Amino acid sequence: QVQLVQSGAEVEKPGASVKVSCEASGYTLTNYFIHWVRQAPGQGLEWVGIINPSDGRTSYAQKFQGRVTMTRDVSASTVFMDLSSLRSEDTAVYYCARMQGPARDAFDLWGQGTMLTVSS
Amino acid sequence: EIVLTQSPGTLSLSPGERATLSCRASQSVSSSSLAWYQQKPGQAPRLLIYGASSRATGIPDRFSGSGSRTDFTLTISRLEPEDFAVYYCQQYGRSWTFGQGTKVEIK
Question: Which of A28, A33, B46, B52 sits at a 20 to 30 Å CA gap from B96?
Answer without folding.
Answer: A28
